[in-house]
User: Fold this.
Amino acid sequence: MYLWVGEIIVSCIAALAAIFFFVQAGSFRDLSTNPLDIGSRAFPRLIALLLLAFSLWQIIHAIKRTKASNESISFGSIPTVAAGIVIMAVYVYLFKIVGYFYATPVFIFFLQWVQGSRKWVSMAAISIGFALFAYLVFVRFLGIALL
Assistant:
């Protein structure tokens, strides 16, 4: 498959997701009592519009490059993709049972391993560091409980 075809496909999927999220954000309840408050719909809709704009820009950019570039891409090895899908399924299952802070480092660790990393200390540091960073930002700083 040519690279520009893949870019168009991914950009179309992102544009459809942006439209979906824009419509879904319209169903958010507005709980503010301040008439000057923009409400809970504004930020998600802004992000959806930005995603749509960038997706359309990427589609146009990819179409312009069709004749200039016939670089092809491969999808990698099927076992690597299959292992990634299995790890993702196990992550979703573990997430429901043990929660975010235990499942996520395990998921990140094994995903790095499937992608070919074999530096165990680095893999563990990245996995634990990301979970620690998420804890500090969301739980401690923003006060959002991640399950």
